[in-house]
Amino acid sequence: MKTFFNRHLNILDYAIGNLWRGRFRSVSILVVFTITVFMVASFSLLSNSLRSAAVQLLETVPEIIVQKLEAGRQVGISIDEIPKLDTIYGISEINPRIWGYYFDEINGANYTVIGDPRFGRDQLIPGLPLEMSSPEKLNPAISPAVVGTSFVQSRRVGQRSNFSLFRPDLSLKSFRIVGSFSDRSSMVTADLLVTTIEDARDLFQIQANQVTDLLVSVANPSEVNVIAGKIDKILAGSRVITRNQIQKTYQVAFGWRSGVGLICMLGAVTAFAILAWDRASSLSPDEAREVALMKMVGWQTSDVMLVRFWESAVLSTISFGLGYMAAWIHVLFFKGALFLPILLGWSVLKPPVVLVPVFRFSDLLLIGSLTIFPYLAATIIPAWRSGTVKPDALV
Amino acid sequence: MIRLEDAEKWYNRGEFNEVHALKKASLSVAPGEVVCVTGPSGSGKSTLLSLIGCVFPPTSGLVEVGGRKLSRLPDRFLTMHRQKVIGFIFQQFRLLPGQSVLDNIVLPLLPQGIPPAVQKQIAASLMERLSITARKDFPVDKISGGEQQRVAIARALVNNPAIILADEPTAHLDEQLSREFLAIVGELKRDGKTVVITSHDQRVTTDKVVDRVVEIVDGRIGSRDGNGYAH
Amino acid sequence: MIRHATFFLLFCLLFVCFNAALWIYSAKHQQTLAGDGLVPEIVGTLGLTDLCLATDARYIRHLSVSDPLSPYMNHPGALEHFPSSALYVPR
Ligand SMILES: Nc1ncnc2c1ncn2[C@@H]1O[C@H](COP(=O)(O)OP(=O)(O)O)[C@@H](O)[C@H]1O
Ligand SMILES: [Mg+2]
Predict the structure, then answer these.
(1) Which of A10, A133, A224, B41 is deepest in the core (most CB within 10 A)?
(2) CB contact under 8 A, A112 and C62
(3) pLDDT score at A138
(4) Is residue C67 part of a domain?
(5) Based on the domain organization, do A125 and A12 belong to the same domain?
(6) For residues A33 and A374, what is the distance between their CA atoms, to the nearest angstrom?
(7) B228: left (phi > 0), else alpha (psi -120 to 50), else beta?
(8) How far B158 CA sits from the closest chain A CA (Å)?
(9) Distance of alpha carbon A247 from the chain centroid
């Protein structure tokens, strides 16, 4: 047993000595290897942290959302239809709302506008945690609004408490900011403008009895699917989305996107494997002589291959350690600056993202198998060729 | 210790570049004997030595080294046997460039799982004996030719083999160093080692340490005693 | 006598420690994601549905509640909001 360990340690020593003697070559492989690991790991950790953000942040999304489609387009729902749902047992609350987008001609940004019936001219939505503006702003003459951080920045609202938006007929509608969302919540609120349902209707010039969707709360969560099915039957042309579906979207979207990213990376991984192959397979006369000598003095083919294995293992371990660590730092402290745009897309507003990756052993395995396996595979045949050099070349 | 009977060696047999390097070679070396193989260049001296050194099995015939027949041994066992009984000193020394004297000497010990402390101990006594202790940490390409050969000898002795083979050991050495080499051979003989040297160097063939001179011409072995008379 | 191998093993250990430190740091900062419970409260109260990651199109801003046809309803030139829209199929 002791001999077994000493043999491996001796050979590991020898392999490290080899790497050190060929340090220029080793470092060049190390650098490329580390970059490959870094890229693959960054992608994996980015999608990992986005998914984990989705899980944590979207825990409380509405149980059921009802929209209406007409000719494949979303159209308004008349509030007169709501009483039809009274027949369904198990619904605890129905909240109609206006929900839409405002395209800001001035800076090309899109805002999300929400008109909530619980929001009154002189009454904030109960239970909504906000950073409050001074109370005199609760002047009921102008439409109240609660805004997110990106909105404030892009409109350059600054200390001002009023701003105006265009109605479709290009007349101006003024708002006063009665509160704003904390930047700790900007992962979901950055582009929001929340106002009363009447003001939202006024801004978008929507008919008085129309809303864009209904939020349905359910008393017993296990009945969500049944109730969703019933709503779908009762409201012709409706589109019913459940909490479960919403939450799944993000797992799928980022899984998919990072999958595409990783496929793009395959090119890089392949290129790297080719480099490794090239470096390892060119058995120089010097190396051949060295191996022949080792064989001559009693090294077996397996011993020589073990040297090659340990060389690869040492390079892989160092590169993997460095690349993985760099990727984690990249995602955690630099918000994945190099690759985030690929996962998120271009946008005028740059909502601040908070990325905190979660350690998952499966990620580690995935990153490892995408980087170390190609390398080992690329070096195994050259290692075998090197191991089978015959000693008679020496005499 | 060593016995060859009608051993044949072909290189690249059946191909356009085939060479019949050794023809019906028979030779027997007793334990503790020092034999010198001589002959013109290209006559098959190195081939004979490789055969004895378990580098490859004979194409046909019998080769027995250290009590074991090589004829059909697979590579793996040839290597194992070589490790146990043979110490080989090459014509060009074949040291690993860039590595230290110590590293070169302990190379055969590494795959045997011998811990570094023991390696050092074994190497130290050999270096002491061959007076290269002062060069211990020098890279082998930074020491003189005579020192390089002594490193090669130390490496050949590190497994404490029963048979020492040296291919043209004095070809690269001057008068003085050649004499030193023969002195070392004398010591090995006193230790009871079996030594086979190839050489066409008069100083070696006529030296009194050599018990027997074997002549080889065009792959065929003839024999003379130390005084140069053919049997 | 210290082997090269020992240095290498120490090196590996160092990496494991560094990475473990990052893992632990991240695990401890998971709460910052949810703004210490602030976010689920807002999401629940307002009935929000999506992460605000990119706002270039409505089917990107509200990934989970937009329908498969919505990308085609923009004017033709706006179909591709590359790369965000190019990489996934809206539900
Ligand atoms: N590996 C080899 N492949 C083919 N021919 C060889 C090989 N080694 C030696 N020979 C040939 O075998 C013959 C004997 O060579 P060798 O034993 O090296 O002679 P010596 O050592 O006496 O000079 C020579 O003709 C040489 O060209
Ligand atoms: Mg020769």
Answers:
(1) A10
(2) yes
(3) 60
(4) yes
(5) no
(6) 11
(7) left
(8) 10
(9) 14
If asked whether residues A81 and A207 sit together in one domain, one would say yes
Query: Facing residues of A307 across strands?
Result: none
Check: CB of residue A116 under 8 Å from CB of residue A197: yes
Q: Provide Rg for chain C, Cα atoms.
A: 23
Element (H, E) at C12: helix C4-28
Atom of ligand 1 at shortest range from CA of B22: 14
**What is the rounded radius of gyration, in angstroms, for the C-alpha atoms of chain B?**
18
SS3 A388: coil
Amino acid at A67: Q
Q: Is the pLDDT at A339 greater than 90, yes or no?
A: no
The stretch A37-59 carries a mean pLDDT of: 87
Enumerate residues 6+ apart whose C-beta is below 8 A from A299: B79, B108, B110, B111
Distance between CA atoms of A198 and A201, rounded to whole angstroms?
Answer: 5
A102 in a structural domain: yes
Rounded to the nearest integer, the mean pLDDT of chain B is: 90
- How do residues A104-160 score in pLDDT, each as one tens digit? 888 888 899 999 988 888 788 888 888 876 666 566 778 889 999 888 888 877 777
- Phi, psi for B11 (deg, rounded to 5): -100, 140
Ion ligand 2: protein residues whose beta carbon lies under 5 Å: B 46
Question: Across the interface, do B120 and C3 touch by the CB < 8 Å criterion?
Answer: no
Q: What is the pLDDT of residue C69?
A: 61
Q: Distances from the Cα of C45 to the Cαs of A116, A223, B210, C58, in angstroms? A: 10, 21, 103, 22
Q: CB–CB of B21/B14 below 8 Å? A: no
Distance of CA B89 to the CA centre of its chain: 5
As for how many domains chain C has, the answer is 2
pLDDT recorded at residue B161: 95
**Non-local CB neighbours of B201 within 8 Å, separated by 6+ positions:** B168, B170, B171, B178
For residue C2, give the chain B residue with the closest CA: B116
What's the CA angle centered on C84, arms C80 and C88, to 5 degrees?
Answer: 90
Residue nearest (by alpha carbon) to ligand 1 atom 2: B11
Establish, for the pair of chains A and B, how many residue pairs have beta carbons separated by less than 8 Å. 82
Q: Mapping DSSP to helix (H, G, I), strand (E, B) and coil, where does residue B63 land?
A: strand
Residue range B169-202, pLDDT digits in tens: 988 888 888 999 999 999 999 999 999 999 988 8
Nearest CA among B175, B114, B123 for reference residue B150: B123
Torsion sign, CA atoms C37, C38, C44, C49: negative
By the CB < 8 Å criterion, does B120 face chain C? Answer: yes
- Which helix H or strand E contains B8, and what residues bound it? strand B2-11
Domain membership of residue C29 (yes or no) is yes
Pick among C3, C8, C82 to test the A interface (most A CBs inside 10 A): C8
Four-CA torsion A307, A308, A313, A316, nearest 10 degrees: 150
Residues A265 and A381 in one domain: yes
C66: CB partners within 8 A, 6+ apart: C58, C59, C90, C91
Interchain CB distance below 8 Å, A392 and B50: yes
Residue A250 has pLDDT above 90, yes or no: no
Residues A105 and A45 placed together within one structural domain of the fold: no
Q: Do A298 and B108 touch (CB under 8 A)?
A: yes
Q: Do residues A131 and A182 make contact, with C-beta atoms less than 8 angstroms apart? A: yes
The top-scoring range by mean pLDDT among A135-149, A345-359, C33-47, C71-85 is C33-47
Domain that holds residue C82: 49-91
